[in-house]
Amino acid sequence: MQLDFEEIKRIIPQRFPFIMIDKVVDVDPGIEAVTLKNVSGNDIFFLGHFPERAIMPGAAIIEAMAQTAIILFAAGKEATTRNTYFLGSVKARFHHPVVPGDCLKIRAVNIKSLPNGAFVSAEAHVENIKVSEAELVFIVKNE
Known about the structure:
The chain has 143 residues and is of the alpha+beta class. Helices cover 17% and strands 43% of the residues. The chain has helices at 5-11, 58-74, and strands spanning 23-28, 32-38, 82-94, 103-114, 117-126, 129-142. The chain has a 6-stranded antiparallel β-sheet, with helices on one face.
């Protein structure tokens, strides 16, 4: 299943300037999701983060991974009845800088489901080079 930007906005709660994914390439709900983030020099985080040499902040990469994981759990569900909350990251690693012009391809895989949450493994690549990886922890609440 593929989703465009408007469909992403219906699923995740974030709004400008905090939407960190542009397109869902594929999602198998509850199992795996793959998204894209086109990194632009116009992204707002570049205004203050190494302005003399634009590098995407690690926190923004982790947020893109977390939003991909939310898509993993929320795609195909009624957005008003379920909420997925990011609790934290474990073993986050950054291998290469991400700069304007790069396209992040993010893959999130559910590694362990819990009664009210999950552990997710996420990786971000630019042109088949792993730039970051992390294990993420989520809670899913019915509201």
